[in-house]
């Protein structure tokens, strides 16, 4: 993917050196849909970073000031444009950096990129019905709640080993809605094709 710059963040592909930052939040994922991504140690984190580095749809969210990876996004990966220009997006922030608007800043830039640069027609997100922060994020992005799938998916089992099914909401927004809406920037967000250097000299 292209490197995307926002006011406080750089969105870029994962690369060698990101393992410790990724491990900091994937050692104990809090959202049920990411339980399966739990990493046991730094070695597993290094393998995960290598995998993500090859995935066009996998995006690292970095602080401009320090270069630290504070979360990740996905969307627009290979093969995802097969269904009539539709792609799904998702997000995962290190809880240490929650409540500061970083998730909104990053996802807004990603949606803008997927609609403008990648030409997607429709973007959707699956969100569990108990995941209020993600629902709030979708709403702030101008996404519409299109429905709730009852007992749609299971990420965990109960003590007897039976799957616990969760109710999943689908939020979505169309390109034309994004372009005419208040959430879009009106102008393409700063996108640079080459990596730069942050204020601490760390490559971003
Ligand atoms: C969902 C998730 C990304 C939301 O992160 P977040 O930090 O709470 O969300 P935001 O970045 O939008 O910020 C939220 C709050 O930061 C504050 N904020 C917003 N902009 C700000 C700014 N520029 N400066 C300081 N604070 C700001 C606001 O109080 C905002 O809340 P409000 O908009 O409701 O008033 C995060 O909880 C997460 O990673 N959860 C686990 C993973 C997950 O559930 N993924 C989805 C699976 S379906």
User: Can you count the beta strands?
Assistant: 9
In this entry the ligands are: coenzyme A
How many structural domains?
Answer: 1
CATH topology: Aminopeptidase
Mean pLDDT: 90
Global geometry: globular
Order of helices and strands: EEHHEEEHEHEEHE
**Estimated radius of gyration:** 17 Å
The order of strands across the largest sheet is 7-8-6-5-4-3-2-1-9
Which range best describes the helical content: under 10%, 10-25%, 25-40%, 40-55%, 55-70% or over 70%? Answer: 10-25%
Q: What is the name of the CATH class? A: Alpha Beta
- By CATH, the superfamily comes out as Gcn5-related N-acetyltransferase (GNAT)
The N- and C-terminal alpha carbons lie at a distance of 14 Å
List the uncertain runs.
190-204
CATH architecture identity: 3-Layer(aba) Sandwich
